[in-house]
């Protein structure tokens, strides 16, 4: 199957897609001996060279699960100089990228991979993948969890019903388990705000078939074969 040239260059670890576009525009990339142009595509049988040298072999597909601590951003490069999650996986020999985001003050399960197809499945709404969070909140009152699970809108979009479980409550403080199947920006925090709750701590503990378990903050591990197989399974299987 043919793919856009900049995507192929990125997949081979040569450059990011934006950097690859610059390399193509500079005339440094050739397909079967012909100088490539932006918009060109190539397939498995094509010979692609950069500065006259063949591209490196496709990297081994890698899937790692990180327990992201608070205080790290999930962008690969932050213009404000804040710490990013790639600092925590520097000892992984392959170049990997975060799948989705956890905001600066959120923590927990974050998948990183170099498999774009698996990332797309997890991120696309059609994948219907549930993400589960623990939310420590203040302003709690009995029945607030029903408001969270009821009809809600953010940015003019109707949200899919959330799965909400009260783990424990003491006065106006509570610990909620919240499962969502969308990726609206800061969704859980904003849902809680609509319900009159303030999130003081937010931790993702599951995503699809992946579980954070007892992995310490700031540490990562490779996914098991069973977990990798489950990444592309249709929901409900």
Helix and strand arrangement:
Blueprint: E1 3-4, H1 5-11, H2 17-25, E2 29-31, E3 34-35, E4 41-42, E5 48-50, E6 53-54, E7 63-68, E8 97-98, E9 107-113, H3 116-123, E10 131-138, H4 144-149, E11 153-154, E12 157-158, E13 163-170, E14 173-180, H5 187-194, E15 198-207, E16 210-211, E17 220-222, H6 225-231
Parallel strand pairs: 9-15
Antiparallel strand pairs: 1-4, 2-3, 2-5, 5-6, 7-9, 7-17, 8-9, 10-14, 10-15, 11-12, 13-14, 15-16
Summarize the structure.
This protein is an alpha+beta fold and 237 residues long. It has helices at 5-11, 17-25, 116-123, 144-149, 187-194, 225-231, and strands at residues 3-4, 29-31, 34-35, 41-42, 48-50, 53-54, 63-68, 97-98, 107-113, 131-138, 153-154, 157-158, 163-170, 173-180, 198-207, 210-211, 220-222.
Description:
- The protein has 237 residues and is an alpha+beta fold.
- Strands 7, 8, 9, 10, 13, 14, 15, 16 and 17 form a 9-stranded mixed beta sheet that branches. Strands 3-2-5-6 form a 4-stranded antiparallel beta sheet, with no helix packed on it.
- It has 6 helices and 17 strands.
- It starts with a strand and ends in a 6-residue tail after the last helix.
- The longest helix has 9 residues, at 17-25.
